[in-house]
What we know:
The chain has 296 residues and is mainly α. The chain has eleven helices and no strands.
Amino acid sequence: MTAHTVESTALYDVPGPKTRRRHRMYGAVSTALILALIGWILYLLFGTGQFTATKWTPFEYQGIQELLLRGLGNTLKAFALAAVLSLALGTVLATGRLSDHAPVRWLSALVVEFFRAMPVLVMIFFIFVALKVQPLPALVAGLTLYNGSVLAEVFRSGVNSVDRGQREAAFALGMRKTQVMSYVLVPQAVRAMLPAIISQLVVALKDTSLGYLITYEEFLHAGKLIASNLDYDLPFIPVVMVISPIYIGMCMLLSWFAQWVSRWEQRSPKTEAVDVAPAEPGTLLPGGGPPTAPRL
Length: 296
């Protein structure tokens, strides 16, 4: 057995012929079950007439297409505003949570815990109904308060996950706390925080659909108007089948963007490994050759 084989099987044994056959059988059974489930769903959809021409006719009209595109644009607008403001609020609250001043830490912790525990829909309704705010600002404010509070904990955990020796070494060099955070801790914490940040932004994107409850004309609101149309035999399932892939595609684009940022960071000159020349014999003292042991 070669060294490479020993290293590759250090954590588990290579499956034998019987195990491989068993795994193939499990895969075949799982695939058959999934295909059967998909077939059963399609059977129900065809049986209830969800693929009739009447239910799919609305999507051929230019007015319906413009309604969907306008709703998609409003969704992206609300998400962009909420994402930027959530990141800014999360940064401010995380800075407060990491402050050396106890009152600032306590106040920041109180704000974070309060808005993290509060349901997003309750906040949106409160801002819209009690404070008489317009639908778009009410939706953005509710999403910002909730997601900003969650991101604050993500930022704080990411900074605290950096090795304590990095912080101590930076302070030993005479750097101020702001410099330590900006140049040492945050750049190293970004990679650890990035998956959680993107996951939370995906949550914010999906939560924009709550805007239809306060009459904000976003993507789901446009779909609801089409699905409730009696002239097209209430095409609820066709609307879901059109809208859902678009939501899924936008979430996948966010994940792809996160992977791209991660790869770009690894290629950045600031994070690339620097080749160090091997040590060579040379003059160690200004006056000549290397020191020699004193003669006895």
